[in-house]
Records
---
Amino acid sequence: MTDEREAPAARVGRFHVITDETLQSRFSHGEIARLAVRGGADTVQYREKRPLLTRELVAAAREVADACRDGGAVCIVDDRADVALAVAAAGVHVGRDDIEVTVARRLLGDGFLVGGTANSLEEARSVFAGPLDYIGVGPIFGTNSKANPAPVMGLETLHRIAAESPVPVIAIGNISPDRIADVLGAGAFGVAVLSGVTCSADPRAAAAEYRERINAYLKDAGVTS
């Protein structure tokens, strides 16, 4: 059995870890990336919301990109297409308030991944028309990483988005390891995790638990990759 949702973008991973230095102070972006990849993350998204200088963003993103290259994972930069280009990342993830996906695609070209964001079915439908490789949707169960989060989406809305989406759907939002089967069963191609790995005392072990749950679901579902 194969998963038809793999077709739009073969490089879109099933397990994304998002880095953050504001929710914890033990690990740098680069350290989180290395530990997460060792634990089984196939994609790491460099996420920095502080108003840092561009050269500081590039320096940190380069550490993440190097960690991904060393571990055979994909590096995606949140928000900044210019930083993604500067560190030769695999792509960029643009949020609701960032540049349009069409602009990101024009800047990066067809050889890069471009991910979009949707916090509702209506938003997802408006984003589907863009030149995307995947769409991040949520929060599925809530979030602790944003001051003013969007309403909780839930599994039913996730299922509806996944059923209509022409590209792989990556679910995010308080997804613990024991919820992996429910989220993938609702139609998500993969999951993105922030605090579940980044804020763990042992990010490698935390990532390994997520990877194990993902692999177990895919095996039980008869999905080959």
Note: Residues 44 and 75 are 5 Å apart (CA to CA).
---
Amino acid sequence: MQVNPQLESARIELAFDDDAELREFVAAAKAQGAFLLELTELPTPLASYTIALRLESGFETELAATVVQLFEAPGGGSAAFQIEALSRGWALEFERRLRQAREPAKDHSEMTGVPPIVRIRQMNVRERMHLATKADRTERATLLRDGSPQVLMGLLTNPRVGADDIVQIIRNPQASPGVLDRVSKENRWMANSEIQKALVRNPKTPAPIAIRLVDSLPTEELRKLAKIQSGLRENLRKAALRVYLKRNRR
């Protein structure tokens, strides 16, 4: 995929090599409501952009997306976009125009037989971030320990990621506040008590999110948090104690 930013006109063009690559991008973006792009020039935070999806065959379609987080790096960086809900009409038209597209090629790791941990260590951040969006269980075992917030954000857009993976992402020391905020916005993940506890205990979780989650924690977890004297923000410890005492008075 080639990225052509036209930031002055609030437009970013994505040129895909083939139908399979385009289908994969749209499926992941639609499933997670977000995607990552590596850019030489970073867009404006919280601004809306038109994302044009193109093929050499002449196919082109557009979707609207908002910048939700930036990752600065020498010579540019990466941006996380949250897309607007895709209408049924858009999805039907997209499928109609691509219904003859070939099936995606066999996964590279399956063809080569190279151990994932060896192959992944040879990748740069951009390659690992792209792999994260579609990694299988074996590949995720390595990527979940990655030191790049961009790679962790890419994992969040992977439809194969489960609750156990999310807990590992939250506990990764490199998980940025943006990554943790993204986790907190997914209802399917926030119904899991282990994910809630991991978010509250992570010092990088934005305070408003962590404090809001305290009310949802099991009573035993509240008791543990209330006793912690170090390693936990004082406002969270007091909030846990307050909720714990309130429950015990009932």
Note: The first helix runs from residue 19 to 32.
---
Amino acid sequence: MVGLSIAWRLAARGAAVSVFDRGKAGAGASHAAAGMLAACSEAEPGEEALVALGRDSQARWPGFADELLRVSGIDVELRREGTLVLALTADDQGEILHRLEFQQRLDLPLQWLSAADTRRKEPHLAGKIAGALFSPQDHQVDNRKLVQALRIAAEAAGARIFEHRAVKEISVHGGKATGVVFDDGATAPADVVVLAAGAWSRQIAGLPPDRRPPVRPVKGQMLALRMEAKAPLLDHVLWAPGAYLVPRRDGRLIVGATVEEKGFDDSVTAGGVMALLDAAWRAIPAVEELPIDEIWVGHRPGSRDDAPILGPGPLDGLFYATGHHRNGILLTPVTADAMARFILDDVVDPAIRPFDLERFLPARAAE
């Protein structure tokens, strides 16, 4: 997703762009995601810069979606019902309200709803609830349609996409990134290399160990249930204790996601699926009647501080755009715009300045 969006922006400005993907383009975390644009409801202490970046990108999303529709012909289904963070118990409410104190200090548009007001928004919720936090500006898009649209847009702008072409290392000469080397030993020369390999970014060789982006795979199991499209059980994105639920216009109800530090393990487990279904059922009991449409596993690209790595690498001509963790869809517009401007105009968008690799190096960490 990130790579395709940057490719689109670069190619649209006349750059000759090639995208190399180890599998099918956009089939990694972008395909597995739920498409939530949750810059407000997920904000936590210590993430002030990340919240600012998310809000910046959130504001760009309507224009970004409209532009993609014009260029690709695909509606990525930006839905604006907002998000509910559900409290089933008084303990849930206390935890949400504690976090809300911090969120309100950032002037985020959030509102606590009583149980009755929450049920008016979502009548199929469980019989006993404490209320919910309402985030009217945390929306969603269909991430799989977004991947399709970005690919069409990038290719229409002139970008070339090479699938099942795994990059082994970055080629370096005289302190400059000069291209990439593939598993079979073949090379592709380039004036600029953008490392946007998601959870696989650290595996690409050619850099000193401390300059490889500290990105790891964070496994997430997810599933989709099938609702009646004309009579859905849910209209808003819903964060419930233990799971989130995201309704699609076609009737799919996305339920996710586990958070597992298990490397690139891609197995679906009984425990993971059971935990998600139990959490969904506790929030909306009627889901027990819904058929299971799909179950899958994705790998989020998690950095050490769960924030993206954006900016220049240690070599001339090398740039990082990785480590977006759970926010890849949300941050796609600002990442694409800021990285293209940085690469082509040498202008650093203030929004991405806090997210360069240098923050992980000893000199910066000691400050």
Note: The mean pLDDT is 95.
---
Amino acid sequence: MNRTDRLYALVEELRAIAPRPRSARWLAGRFEVSARTVERDIGALQQSGVPIYAEPGRTGGYCLDKARTLPPVNLTPGEAVAMALALQGLEGTPFHVTAGAALRKLVAVMQADDACAAREPAGRVHLVRRDEDGPRVPRLVADALSAGRVLRISYGDREGAVTTREIEPLAYVGSPTHWYLVAWCRLRRGVRAFRTDRIGAVSVTAEVPDPRPLRREDLDIPQELVHQLTLG
């Protein structure tokens, strides 16, 4: 059994008995590898976002949180390649890192033969980086909404003047050329859109701001030019 198939099988083995644990020694015997190999495989799955945790004690082992993972996904190889290509398009957006994690989770829960079949056509797709591609969005900016904290940032305006501000993140706005973090700016006492490639140093404070509504008119964008993202 190759490593890709074994990773898939490990997840399904833990899913089948969840929430009960399986020890590294038991899993090593099941897949005819060493316990150290099992531990490395479990570590790789955890890093890719699979919700596996260790339960200590004599009867402990590795457990899978079934409530936070998916059963095998019946995507065709072509659909999987299309998803990978779509997620590649998030380069330079606040969702680039989480898109990579999402793709690894998707492949991990596909049928093993479909996942293998998808790798061949995926390897035939080549993407050319555009000269004008900008820098990646800083991770702390990408996590701004989910963190729900006040950020302290340095920001350079179009003339190059740099100011330090405390902001309350409210939303993202994406355009074909730039991404913006929309936030309540305490320095300017109003809603401002901060171009992500102009944000310098970023730190997350311990302060959780009170909820602040964001109105469509606060975006200062013609309503016919903007629409909200929906799932489904």
Note: The mean pLDDT is 84.
